[in-house]
Please model this.
Amino acid sequence: MNVNKKYKNSVFSSIFSDAGALRELYSAIEGVSLPDDAPVDINTLSDVLFMEQINDISFTIDNRLVVLIEHQSTINQNMPLRLLLYITHVYERIINYKKLYKTRMMEIPAPEFIVLYNGKAAYPDRKTLKLSELFKDVKNIRGGKEIISLELTVQVYNINMGHNPELLKRSVALEGYSYFVGKVRENEGKLPLEEAVKEAVKRCIEENKMREYFEAHGSEVVNMMITEWNAEEAKEVWFEEGREEGLLMTARNALLKGFSLDVVQGITGLDRETIENIQKDR
Model:
């Protein structure tokens, strides 16, 4: 398996960076059997300036089906909207725009949207997300009618070990990746992150889980995984900082409106000393 080094990959996108791996992955997800000679063209979006991937995986099969697969370690209800934006850019790349202005109907590859989830939070084996679930309620404007003029459906699969075992069994690469991430998490509480990743790589080689890949790219995997893990931690910090700032503002506004310290504490969950300091500063 050759890793595409043109972009700053995640471990997931580096594993599934060639046509053979993508055939196996799609076949496993859909429970079909794509022949080895089925044409697969990768068209993952990239930022030319920074040489980074914008989406995780995008590819066409036989120029008839365009598949977008995203890997998520956090639950994100906005994936249908993100994938809508991605697919428009993909179509821009693979469609001859001159044909749009001809009267004859043109055929385009049918889209399919998949999310593979392996975060820590509990999640069902499979869930369907729809773009229409994000739409604002406009029934009162439309006289009570519900008209969905645009829809995009995403199938989300939980690929953590213990979930969707039949799916994982059908893909050596996906099962190996799931096993690897599980081992990193298992080691993370006992070892520094770098050592936890190295130990997980070692176990994958010993247990013959994607052995050739980890033997050939072990050091790259360690670097990629550390970068990914640190990015996730940074997001959590940003979220917590944003949440705390919001609570402080809520407390300040409540105090300005004359609410007692006890009530403000009940609303925000902030400690008494913090609320008292806010009261002094306002």
Summary: The chain has a mean pLDDT of 85.
